Amino acid sequence: MISKEDSPTTTRAPEGGARVPKGKRRAGDVIFAGGAQGSGILILAILAGVAAFLVIQSFDSLMANTANFFTTSEWDPNVREEPAFGVAALAFGTVLAAAIALLIATPVAIGIALFIVYYAPRRVAAVLGYVVDLLAAIPSVVYGLWGIGWLVVELGPFYQILEEYLGFIPLFAGPISTTGRTMLSAGIVLAVMILPIITAMSRDVFQQVPQAHREAALALGATRWEMIRMAVIPFGRPGIIGGAMLGLGRALGETMAVAMILSPSLVISWFLLQSGNQTIAAHIALQYPEATGYGVSALIAAGLVLFAITLVVNMAARFVVSRRKEFS
């Protein structure tokens, strides 16, 4: 026998609430579900629209280009008869600057997050967390002014030490740039800029580690560092990777700070202490005001490459995180 309360035509509601027919949904549920679905579709539509705009606007210059767009470093698209330009040096500089920033910022961010969550007193942790979050609110042009006005000058002696003791490594070979406007300087500024992003993500995921995991490690005789290494970091690895990739995306697309620090140059150079290299975003910002004809379309084509690089990086990060679902 099926009781009246368990009838298939009704759904039992919480105590004090009215029963809702099983085949009927509340208006609020329908509106919320439709809004959420529409938001997801809107994001995809915007992404597709941006990609279509970049492809369409860059088509003319790519068809007229007489150089290999992906392998050459030449950039002279305003010559109407034989425009020639390539993105090789710009793409190299973009990836190199972002990689330097990620290598510097990630371990520092993880250390700050662990200190805030597991080592610092509560009041100190609250103040330090606020200060780190405040770094994310500073405009990029301010970071650029700080980098060009103070950092590049103060890094001079440090660069001399690097050349003296590590000059046998090609990355740190001389001669050192007298201006300090090098790829390493740009990478350090970018590292400071992405530091709050990685720290915030790591801190949040470290705070979500189950108490039982931490207590079990400590009960087995592990020290605090061993507990962090065996229980906290494995659990938080997807969050760390996600935060690092968000920071990498910020570093890849940063414009003003890099444009203010690096000297405009279209070369592929591994020498971090010498002037050279440029990023796609900075090159677009510097060249766009004076670009005409094929020059505008060529810069949009460079933006298309930057769009593709960022998309690939984020897709790779999502793939890595999805393989660590057992720690989610």
TrEMBL record:
It holds the Pfam family BPD_transp_1. It is found in: Cell membrane. The keyword Transport applies. Signal peptide: none annotated. GO terms for biological process: phosphate ion transport. Residues 91-317 form the ABC transmembrane type-1 domain. This is Phosphate transport system permease protein. It comes from Marinactinospora thermotolerans DSM 45154.
